Amino acid sequence: MRIVIVGAGEVGFHVANHLTLENKDVVVIDKNPDAIRRLSDNLDVQVVNGSGSSPVVLEEAGIQNAEIILAVTDSDETNLVACLVANMISPTTKKLARIRDADYDKYHDMFSSHAPHIDTIINPEIEVVKTIDRLMSVPGAVDIGEFADGRIEFVGVYLEKNAQLAGIRLSELPAKTGKARPLIAAVVREEELIIPRGNDRLLAGDLVYFISEEDKLLETLSVFGKHDQPVNRVLIVGGGRIGFRLASLLEEKSIQTKIIERNPDRCTVLAESLNKAVVLCGDGSDQSLLAEENIRDIDVVVTLTDNEETNILASLLATRMGARKSITKISKFSYFPLMTAIGIEQVVSPRLSAINTILHHIRKGKVLSAISLKGEQAEVIEAIALETSDIVGKPLKNISFPKGALVAGIIRKEDIIIPTGDSVIEPDDRIIIFAIKQAVPKIEKILSVKLEYF
Amino acid sequence: MRWRFILNIIGILTFFFGLTMVFPLFVGLYYQDQSVIPILKSMGITVLVGFSLYLIFRKEKAEVISQREGMAIVAVGWSAVGLFGALPFFLGDGSFTFVDAVFESVSGFTTTGASILTNIEALSKGLLFWRSFIQWLGGMGIIVLSVAILPFLGVGGMQLYKAEVPSPVPDKLKPRIRDTASVLWKVYALISLVEVVLLMVGGMDLYTALCHTFTTMPTGGFSTKNASIAHFNSIYFDCIFIFFMLMAGINFSLHYQLLRGKPLAFWRDSEFRFFLGTVAFLVLVVSFNIYGSIYDSLGQAFRYGAFQVVSIITTTGYATADYEQWPAMSQLILLLCMFIGASAGSTGGGIKCLRVMLCFKFCYKQLFSLIHPHAVSHVKIGGKVVSDDVMQSILGFLALYIGLFTLSSVILAGMGVDFTTSFAAVAACIGNIGPGFGMVGPVDNFAQIPHLGKWLLVWCMLLGRLEIFTIIILVVPEFWRK
């Protein structure tokens, strides 16, 4: 399967990386020779140096035989034109484009029904704002995603030193908590992702990923010692596009919002567009400004400037000065592993969101959503079990599942089932699978339809 | 640098390389000659050493190979293959000294075609087949072959590929390196097959046709006959060989385009035009130069002139005439051909047409900007701008090539070798051609070179085959620093 990616930035790079590991043929186009070199030095992909919106370049990249084109350059216009050209040369190719400008928000449908026929428009900023919103409302969560249209959440929390669950075997959990066993799907310990079995213990300091129904989420979180704390006051540092979107959302929810922006012109624009939020012109890492704005009483500080170092410092400073928690926007993936070490727990990344959405659309079979865990070591895949696929109709223990993959939950109509070795997946069940990166292609194969049935 | 990991990979490569010795073994068994025992022994040793290296270091796993490690693996891998490939010669009837065996083997793998044998036809058929077969393996590259057939080299394969096929302007035929490698090998094997058939149509027996195809397609130049191609003395064979030497000297991605139904790719490629134009021009000059003085008929002059020029410029090294008897101008043109070499992405050696062409363009650009100091101009190839980085690496390559050539000739002369022979032997080895001038001319061989000189030439052949950087980097102290 050939996939053409326009744009060798962080998103293009990481999507390409994912796809090559899954043995797909990837061709990447970029104008910048340095970006191209970085790709060809590190990944097993074909590279084409040129403008992704040029028909000549797209033909050179083999757009005619491509199943999917991904337009993920920094420029919305380039992405649109690339899709338009691709549509002319090769109408059957599936088109995905990243479009970020808010002005396009209402016209996404038109782009798919009219000329460029873009199958999916990805706006990572909308996704990121959603994620920030969820992180704010779920206490203690450092990573969060949703399945089954939001009915089921998957959450990552750190196990505190004095947590009552520390040192307990998974199989002992129900006895200890007196409640139903939370669906623990994966544990990240010392940068390594483990898919735990009944005999494995949870240790303090682990990052535990579990799955829960949305309405039982708070209950489950209390098992981990995380209790609900209402969010009333939010400070946003950085009034860019994401900052503005978040501020508007918070306004709708009647949460007191302050937004700090450096650029006076941008401040004027923000002040004009926002009604209740307080727009402050200044530097987010300015101590006196933070003190002046009662940082001690702020529930959540969200740092969203374009400069990740500023974000990290502003978050650290704010929590040190008394803010209850902080959410930091990070784009450089190489920083993710460092975040825990320097004391930043909640991180959002528009790029990671974009990658998740893209991967979801590329997967074969009836995959509903796919989410990359932090540092991309693993993925959570939600899929519909097709009648013709290998996993249906026999006990799980008899299915040859690849190493490093686990069925974490089965959703049958309204019920969520914690699978055991004897559970049988029925056709049209939704299943949630945790899989380390290396196991993803095999999982995909298992999920996809066997051809001989047709 | 994870040496244990590198040795693990080397072990695997050696193991598979050992397995390829079954082919000469079959030939030996078929002709029932004395090569069977030495080949069997060599195969056992190679496979065992490879397997034990793999076993000892099997715990060393790595998902990615750094560029440095890629270079180390290729450089060490080629040296190892050169040594193990020498075993069948060395373990034979004792006619080969160790250095001679290594020289013959490395000359094979690097597709040089320089030989220390005084009487080639005396060698057993099995060993002669091995001698040709290793040229064929080395021509498209053993690492490329490994990348194509060994799945676990997946991602790291790219670093290895780049270290073995260091094209000035890299092009990948397929999105994945494994597919690229296997496509190249398939094209290579297909053209080889056509040549075998055409040679057999001309009346050659299967064994001789195979042995010669195995040395034409990689632009190697070993022959199973003492007199090289002159032995056959047939216009038909001369034409076939000229055609296939040219084919081998063309960028293989163009052949691939042709097979995909895009024959126009040839004409659009400016390096191809440059290569063919240079060949045609030099053939004409040489033919007229030797017409009258050496050959009486223009047809004869053209036949021998064309064969020699094509053979040298594609760095094959077959001979149908003793060009040392030719006028000085023709000899100097042939010497020039040794440096120009074939196209980038071909199996030929030398500096490569692409680099030569870009150097010309660069020089012109320099002159141009002297005349128009404010002009903005770029070196272009096929309408595309060549970046300064690429230009710099080409100039660096050129400087290293000439520098190492000079240095090695001086050292060789210091060992008591005469003036012409020293620089011709080094030029012929670093350019992977084979025959040179003087003591190592087309009717002579390398047996007279002193021991140490042979080791020096072995090193030159490896330098030339891996296009300098991959080998020379090993002697840079910075490479070894942690």
What is the rounded distance between the termini of chain A?
Answer: 21 Å
Estimate percent helicity of chain A: 25-40%
CATH topology of the largest domain in chain A: Rossmann fold
How confident overall, as mean pLDDT of chain B?
Answer: 89
Counting DSSP H or I runs of 4 or more residues, the number of helices of chain A is 15
Whole-number total of structural domains of chain A: 4
For the biggest sheet of chain A, the summary is: 6 strands, parallel
Number of helices of chain B: 22
Task: Please describe the topology of this protein.
The complex is a heterodimer of chains A (454) and B (482).
Chain A: E1 2-6, H1 10-21, E2 25-30, H2 33-42, E3 46-49, H3 55-60, E4 68-71, H4 76-89, E5 94-98, H5 108-113, E6 120-122, H6 124-137, E7 141-147, E8 152-158, H7 173-177, E9 183-189, E10 192-194, E11 207-213, H8 217-223, E12 233-237, H9 241-252, E13 256-261, H10 264-273, E14 278-281, H11 287-292, E15 300-303, H12 308-320, E16 325-329, H13 336-339, E17 346-348, H14 350-362, E18 367-372, E19 378-384, E20 405-412, E21 415-417, E22 430-436, H15 440-447
Parallel strand pairs in A: 1-2, 1-4, 2-3, 4-5, 5-6, 12-13, 12-15, 13-14, 15-16, 16-17
Antiparallel strand pairs in A: 7-8, 8-11, 9-10, 9-11, 18-19, 19-22, 20-21, 20-22
Chain B: H1 3-19, H2 22-31, H3 36-56, H4 67-90, H5 98-109, H6 125-140, H7 142-149, H8 157-164, H9 177-201, H10 206-216, H11 235-248, H12 252-259, H13 264-268, H14 270-290, H15 298-313, H16 328-340, H17 353-371, E1 380-381, E2 384-385, H18 388-414, H19 419-430, H20 451-465, H21 469-472, H22 477-480
Antiparallel strand pairs in B: 1-2
